[in-house]
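Go through this fold for my students:
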Amino acid sequence: MVTICKSLRRNLMEDVYPMWKEEPFLMLKQDHYQLNGNDKYVGFAKDLTDLLATRLNFTYALSLVVDNKYGKLTKGSWNGIMGELLSDDDGADISIAPMTITRERTLAVDFSTPFIEFQLAILLRKPGFNPDGGLPTNPQTSGNQTSNEISPLVLRPISLLLWIASIVTISLLMLLSFLIECFIRRKRGEASVKVSYSGRALQFIFWAFVTLLFIVYMGYFTTERLLGQFGSQRSNTLDIKSIRDLANQDNIRYGVMRAGSTFEYFRISQDRVLRRMYSLMTSDTLNTLPRTVDEGVGRVRYGIQPYAYILEGPYAHYQATLQPCDVIIAPKYFGPKRGYGVATRPNHTLKSRINLAVLGMKENGEIEELENKWFRNKDNCENEETKNFQIEPLELQLGFGQLTGLFIVSTIPVVLTIAIATCELCFRKKRKSSVIITPYN
């Protein structure tokens, strides 16, 4: 009997991501607790194993690796799937898993022709999506500009219409105060500097209006500046088109799965940019590297701070097609083309037959059908790449409609002040007419 060893990863943050499967390669069926053996599982690796078993006429039993790892050489011994394949005590014979073919692993076990080939990808949270799953708003094409992009910094908190209305209102209040005061003094026939009651009322209305407008302006200005960093982070997500873009920015943290083949790729790379990124990833104490694919994707989706997760292309594409469609892939994949292969014990009797079977399934399209079934045959999300997605930058601006009440409330005292000025003139005129002047003897 051939034992197929498959890594079933467990997310350490069970309270946030309660999944005990590695989608879409191997997953537990919904009714798995009612099933036994191989029937409990479903996924790409399960279907591929069934095809190989049919072609090569063997039976198998799926066995999940205990330590949830693919395999790393440490002090002369392998862990994970590699350790199971090399174990002398009841180990596995074959591994059909998303285990990347590397030089170090190839020296220890035998790999078939890759059944999936890929490059590395960058997974990002789609701009506008909140960590709690909120949806984006106001999507626009890149050719449009918003008022925030063309307005000077000091004018941003208030719309152009509100600026015009405020300036006109303040000018009218000043002019009305001046005219009423001049008219009353002219009717008095005196050059007193004493301000009339109506003049005082207008001055109070003027300063009250200016003070309220200033308070609202400062509130919106401060809020806009505090949220400015968040807005820049949203727009910066759209600027990440390649690994170079990710390396040349400071707003978005990034990482790879700890101790995986992608981690090793960065570690041994001779590229200056990749070596600098590796140094930053491993030295950042606040940004520990995720232990699983699910943990890394979870940081992208639910992290408070923007996070970019670098992972293998098939996983990235699968995650970008899942609801609620909140992650996207940077358009430019990078790194050498690598692949997942069927691994066998050294010099296993099925080694050559498995290799020929994989080649045959690639040629006749069976593996492509599996890829379409588990990776591409999904209509849940559109435009999963950043090059096809644009969103309006964060905008926080006070419009005229939001302060209509302030202008209406300011109009009422002005009308009352004009009435007071009229009464004041009538009272002073009546008072003058009632004074009796007697000649001095």
Q: What stands out?
A: The longest strand covers residues 116-125. The chain is about 45% helix and 10% strand. Residues 5-20, 133-151, 229-235, 383-395 have pLDDT under 50 and may be disordered.
